[in-house]
Amino acid sequence: MTDTSTRLADRALIRISGEDVRGFLQGLVTQDMAGVTPETPQWAALLTPQGKALFDFILWADRDSILVDCEATQREALVRRLSIYRLRRPITIEPVEGGVHWSPKAGQGVPDPRLAALGYRWLGSVEGDEASGWREHRLRLGVTEGVEELGQDKTLWLECNAGELGGVSFTKGCYVGQENTARMHYRAKVNRRLVVTPLGEPGDRTRIAYPDLGLMVELRRVESLGDALMPQWLAAALQADAS
Q1: Which residue of 20, 59, 160, 242 is most buried, as measured by CB atoms within 10 A?
Q2: Closest CA to 112 of 171, 69, 169, 174
Q3: What angle do CA 51, 52, 58 make, to 5 degrees?
Q4: Contact in structure between 140 and 119 (CB atoms under 8 Å)
Q5: Which architecture, in CATH terms, is 139-242?
Q6: CB-based contacts of 200: which residues, under 8 Å, 6+ apart?
Q7: pTM of the model
């Protein structure tokens, strides 16, 4: 019997359809739309012109449309923001019914595009019980997401570890926030990192605390990471930056 306790209740879907949807998104988001296929969803973001994260999401191909797997609390705001860029294009951007599902084990779905260790993800119905353990599983692997953890218009996209977790293409053309993002990448100037740490006294570096998990998310300078959790992917990135 299939486990029905897989639904991520804090996620929702947006459908973008119409004429040249991929071209529309190619000039907006951080990810190369050529890599978005039914088998390979991609993590991406919409940035400010200065390269700071506004919204992060996962893009899924659905025939001629693109489905945006986003935070449920930010869905309406993201629809409004994307609609600003639509101008007169014959493109529809609308919330749609559907559920985002997750399992830590193989058997259904595709590997999370950010990190295979996160588990498997797929789109389905809104039926089924809420998945348990996702947030702690994600945070223990050092992966942050959403406006409460990333901040909104507060954190540069590369400070969100987007380069290491596959949230940006450095070979695609221009997009909103591309200039500063590319400059940071090629100059290796990622001086701060969003990290997950053991719960402590919140300070001005703290984004959000999770007392029930004994964890919090902070933006720290790379030379002052202290007791931050150090998953293998982050340790490798910091070693490469230092060499």
Answers
A1: 160
A2: 69
A3: 95
A4: no
A5: Beta Barrel (2.40)
A6: 216, 227
A7: 0.95
